[in-house]
Specification:
Elements (H helix, E strand, L loop, with lengths): L1 H25 L1 H4 L4 E7 L4 H10 L11 E6 L10 H10 L20 H7 L3 E9 L3 H4 L11 H6 L8 E5 L2 H4 L7 H7 L3 E3 L13 E4 L15 H13 L6 E7 L2 H6 L3 H25 L2 E6 L3 E2 L3 E4 L8 E3 L5 E2 L3 E6 L8 E4 L1 H11 L4
Parallel strand pairs: 1-7, 1-8, 2-14, 3-4, 3-7, 4-6, 5-6
Antiparallel strand pairs: 2-13, 8-13, 9-12, 10-11
Helix pairs in contact: 3-12, 4-13, 10-12
Length: 364
Amino acid sequence: MKKIIYLLAVLLFAAACKQKQEPATTGKQTAEKPKNIILMIGDGIGISQLYAAYKVKNDNTAMARCKFVGLVNTSSADELITDSAAAGTAMATGKKTNNGHIGVLPSGEKLETILEIAEQHGKASGLVATSAITHATPASFIAHHPSRHEYEALAMDFLETEVDVFFGGGKAHFGAREDGLNLLDSLQNKGYNLIYNYEEINHARGPLIAGLFGEKHLPKHLEGRGDYLDKASMKAIEVLDQDEDGFFLMIESSQIDWGGHDNNQKYVVDETVELDNLVEKVLDFAEKNGETLVVITSDHETGGFTVVDGTLKGDSLVGHFSTGHHTPVFVPLFAYGPGAEDFSGLYENTAIFDKMVHAFGFGE
Ligand code: MG
Ligand code: ZN
C-alpha cells in the first residue's frame, strides 16, 4: 500500500511539473509580440468625423479590418479639454502633462518617449506629419520643452535623438532660424539624406532621411499636397523595415484638426478619407509582414462635430459644428496585429504608451 501511495505521489508530482512547464516551453508569448509598431494619429478625429468618412466611402472604412476597438479619455493634467501637445505627450510618454507642454512634466522634468525607448532597444524610428514636423503632435515624440510654440528649440531636439526618417513641413525651423544656426547642415553632417520636394520621396535612400517639404506647414490634401502623406508614409515603412530589430513609426494626419477649428466640413472629411485610405495600405503591409502592430487613434476631438442629416446612400451629409475648439469627449482607437487585443476597452490616453511598451516587451 505504501508503495502504491508513493507511486501515485510521484505520478501526481510529475503531472504537476509537466503542467507547470508546458506554458513556459511553448514560447507562444514572445512569438505574439510585435517587432514593429505603427501609431497613426488623426488629429481631431472623433466618432462623427470617422462616421462622415465612412458614409462618403460607401459605408466603408479600412479601420473595420481592426478587430480590437477602444475608447480613449484625452483630458490633460490641468484641463478637461486637452491640446495636441499634452495629448501627444500622453501617448508618447505615458504621462499626463499640462496643455502646451511637449515631452515634459508640469514640473519641467523631461520624459522619455516611446520613440526614444525604441531607439535604445536598437529599433529604427520615424515620424511623418502633414504639419510642420516641429508641430505639437510629432514634436511630442522626440522633443522636450515646456512650450509647444518654441519651434526652434523643438527642432534642436531632432539632432539629439537617433530618429531615422522624418517627413513633414517646418524647414524654416531648421534652416532659417533667428539664432542663426543651420540645422540642415547639422542633419547632413549626421548623415541624413535631405530632401525638399515631394517628387524626391520615392527615390530617397535610407537609412537616414529628413524630408522637409515646406518652410512651415504643408498645404491641404486637395490644394497642393497631393499624395504626399501616402508616399511619405510608405517610404518611411520601406526604409525602417530594413532594420532587423524592428521599428517604431508615428504617422499623423495633422490637418483634420485644422478643418475642425475652421468648422469646414469638406476639409475635415477629405483629410479623414485620405487618412483612411492610407490605413488600408498600412494594414496591407502589416498583414503581409505579420510582426507589426498598427494602432490608429486621435489625440482629441475638434469642432464638436456631429452629422445631423443626409441620405442613406451617404450623399448630402449635413454636419454641424458646435465649437471652434477641441472637445473632451472620448476618441476612438483601432488596433491590428500582434498585441492588438490589449487595446480593447476604455482607458486614458497615457495607457496607449503603456500598452505599446508592453507589446514591444520592453522592461519585461
Ligand atoms: Mg497635430
Ligand atoms: Zn486643434
